[in-house]
Design goal:
Blueprint: H1 2-22, H2 25-30, E1 37-41, H3 48-64, E2 68-72, H4 79-86, E3 94-99, H5 100-109, H6 118-121, E4 122-137, H7 146-155, E5 161-164, H8 170-182, E6 187-190, H9 194-203, E7 208-212, H10 213-221, E8 226-230, E9 256-264, H11 269-283, H12 286-293, E10 298-299, H13 305-326
Parallel strand pairs: 1-2, 1-3, 5-6, 5-7
Antiparallel strand pairs: 3-9, 4-7, 4-8, 4-9, 4-10
Helix pairs in contact: 3-11, 5-13, 8-13
Length: 331
């Protein structure tokens, strides 16, 4: 009997101790965030990811009532910053402003070079915005719409040149997806960035390109480039007269440069859900939508963290297939 009584006293003491240890955890989690957050932008200042990130950081600071500090950590095509977040403490205080499409491409194209695994080491919190792409041609190319471009390319296999801002850039991948779906043969001319590519496209050194709308828009408005179709499922306000790829003769062709927020894997689910809720509220604010649209980025429909993961996985799968089919290498 004494042994039973002793065991009961020990069990009671253990329960009290467990309760005492667990008690501080719940308030700490409920109080999140208790200090400033860090939003890592894996590219230098001034680019699209940086601009979107600063809009998000400003709005998220207001939603969470805590400062969100932007930290630019560029290098290796966005992989250095992404790896830094993947290795960070999973406590909800280090976030990644991810270029979702680029990271998804790199997950296959550079899988043997990058030190982190996108789907295993990072947890998507929310998809933020999409920057549409547009098919453009030099006005000297004798086509007025996407259907005519497909016919022209079909009649001149391997002769029509297309520019891209790099071997693994979303613009290049969109053109490769176009080649596969339209069953045409185009000659790829890679450049180091959109600026030089657009300069040669306007100058006639190359003939066509799939480029982000913000980069192409000034040249479209000046008449230096002819738009053929946008790559979104619906027409966009920045180019309302330009048809979608589906309307222009390529059903199911949808490509955008996507942006989203991610955190280190193993970040507690309640924190992920709290961040997701704050970002969903943020994206429904007209002032935030206006600021993003000013940069050519359209906010995406609200979604929870599971849907954000599904979107990321869909991007990874889509570009893995394109890379495999086109035998694309990073070199």
């Amino acid at each position: 009997m004494p042994d039973i009584a002793k065991r009961r006293r020990l069990a009671a003491a253990a329960l009290l101790l467990a309760g005492g240890l667990a008690a501080p955890l719940a308030p700490a989690l409920a109080a999140y965030p208790e200090k400033p957050l860090r939003l890592v932008v894996p590219y230098p200042p001034g680019g699209a990811t940086d601009v979107v990130g600063r809009v998000v950081a400003m709005g998220l600071s207001e939603e969470l009532k805590q400062q969100v500090v932007v930290e630019n950590r560029g290098g290796a095509g966005g992989n250095l910053g992404a790896d830094a977040v993947a290795r960070a403490e999973p406590d909800g205080y280090t976030l990644l402003m991810g270029a979702i499409t680029s990271h998804s491409i790199m997950a296959t194209l550079e899988k043997d070079r990058i030190p982190y695994k996108l789907m295993q080491d990072l947890t998507p919190v929310a998809t933020i915005a999409a920057v549409p792409l547009v098919f453009v041609v030099n006005p000297k190319v004798p086509v007025q719409n996407l259907k005519e471009l497909i016919d022209y390319a079909g009649a001149n296999p391997g002769k029509l040149t297309y520019a891209s801002s790099g071997a693994g850039a979303p613009q290049r991948m969109a053109a490769e997806l176009f080649k596969r779906q339209a069953k045409v043969d185009l000659l790829h001319v890679p450049y180091r960035g959109s600026g030089p590519a657009m300069t040669d496209l306007v100058g006639g050194q190359v003939q066509t390109m799939v480029e982000t709308v913000p980069a192409a828009l000034p040249f479209i408005k000046s008449g230096q480039l002819r738009p053929l179709a946008v790559t979104m499922p619906e027409r966009i306000s920045l180019l309302p007269e330009v048809p979608t790829a589906a309307e222009a003769g390529l059903p199911g062709f949808e490509v955008a440069s996507m942006f989203g927020v991610l955190v280190p894997a193993q970040t507690p689910r309640p924190i992920v859900e709290q961040l997701n809720a704050a970002l969903v509220r943020l994206l429904q604010r007209p002032d935030i939508q206006e600021k993003l649209l000013g940069q050519g980025a359209y906010t995406v429909p609200p979604a929870d963290a599971d849907q954000a993961r599904a979107r990321l996985q869909a991007e990874v799968d889509k570009w893995a297939q394109v890379i495999q089919d086109a035998r694309i290498t990073v070199d």
